[in-house]
Amino acid sequence: MTPLDGSLWISFGSARKGSSCKPVEGGYPPYNVELLPAGSNRPELLRITLAVAGFACSELDVRITGGVLQIRGEKPDDENKDYLHRGIAARRFKRTFALVNGVEVRKAELHNGLLAIELERPSREKRVRKVGITSAS
């Protein structure tokens, strides 16, 4: 697990036991992870931003399966075009992040070739419990 500001949110390494996700997924697409501080009307958020230039919303899939956030992209092959040079990657990809218990996906937005996924961990009420002390004599 990866600690961010003293808290656990997601795992960048191996996924949860029993899942079929591979720990190494290559470097495509590149992504950022940023911690958004709590606001006056919202809790602290985590934003994962993936660079998915050229993909439309219909070609992207974001889902949570068994506590694992999966982001997939797949472009249909365009056999009607005759490329002289093809330097823009149009390959399929899959990125996975194991979510810590209680973390939920708040929203996903595609804007200017960047897919931003916001994660929220609802704040728990801090409980104070008095522990009785007994005499050991």
How does this model look, in words?
With 137 residues, the chain is mainly beta. It has no helices and ten strands. It has strands at 3-4, 7-8, 10-11, 31-36, 45-51, 60-65, 68-73, 93-99, 104-111, 114-120. The strands form three sheets. It has a four-stranded antiparallel β-sheet, with no helix packed on it. The chain is elongated. The model is unreliable at 1-6 and 14-24 (pLDDT under 50).
Shape descriptor:
elongated
Catalogue the unreliable spans: 1-6, 14-24
Content-based structural category: mainly beta
User: What is the radius of gyration computed over CA atoms, rounded to a whole number of angstroms?
Assistant: 20 Å
Q: How many beta-strand segments? A: 10
Strand portion, in percent?
A: 35-45%
Give a short overview.
This protein has 137 residues and is mainly beta. 0% of the residues lie in helices and 39% in strands.
List the helices and strands and how they pair.
Elements: E1 3-4, E2 7-8, E3 10-11, E4 31-36, E5 45-51, E6 60-65, E7 68-73, E8 93-99, E9 104-111, E10 114-120
Antiparallel strand pairs: 1-2, 3-8, 4-5, 5-10, 6-7, 7-8, 9-10
Index terms:
137 residues, mainly beta, 4-stranded antiparallel beta sheet, elongated, disordered N terminus
